[in-house]
Amino acid sequence: MMSFVHLHTHSEYSLLDGANRIPDLVAHVKKLGMDSLAVTDHGNMHAAWTFYEHAKVHKIRPILGFEAYMAFGPRTAREKPPGAPAPYSHLVLLAKNRVGYRNL
């Protein structure tokens, strides 16, 4: 198996940013010889169950997570607050186990 793992992918559930359909994504990862994959949609985990089920069928280790939004000031601000690197940023969160999944 390949040692490279995509830890930041988006599915059709990342509105305006992802076009991958979960069944196609998992099948492609299997075809490439990868044994694990993370799906990290923007601000949601709507794909988690479908991804988990398809990954198990294809013997791919599913890594569940999502891409969170971080606001450095008021979340509606468009300008960056003084001293902040940007008005907002993203942070990829991945679950290591069931406890991590529940915390997401």
List keywords for this structure.
elongated, 24% strand, TIM Barrel, alpha+beta, three-stranded mixed beta sheet, single chain, 104 residues
* CATH architecture call: Alpha-Beta Barrel
Order of helices and strands: HEHEEH
Secondary structure category: alpha+beta
- The strand line-up of the biggest sheet is 1-2-3
Number of helices: 3
CATH class equals Alpha Beta
In CATH, the homologous superfamily goes by the name Metal-dependent hydrolases
Oligomer: single chain
Largest sheet, strands/sense/barrel: 3 strands, mixed
Binned, the helix content reads 25-40%
Choose one word for the global shape.
elongated
- By DSSP, the count of extended strands is 3
CATH topology: TIM Barrel
Beta-strand residue fraction: 15-25%
Provide the gyration radius in Å.
Answer: 16 Å
| Domains, number | 1
- Provide the residue-averaged pLDDT: 92
* Uncertain residue segments: none
For the record, give the distance between the C-alpha atoms at the N and C termini, rounded to a whole number: 29 Å
Structure in words:
By secondary structure, this protein is an alpha+beta fold. The chain has one domain: Metal-dependent hydrolases (TIM Barrel, Alpha-Beta Barrel). Helix content is 25%, strand content 24%. It has helices at 22-31, 48-57, 98-103, and strands at residues 36-42, 61-71, 88-94. A three-stranded mixed beta sheet has the order 1-2-3. Strand 1, helix 2 (48-57) and strand 2 form a beta-alpha-beta unit. Helix 1 (22-31) runs parallel beside helix 2. The protein is elongated. The mean pLDDT is 92.
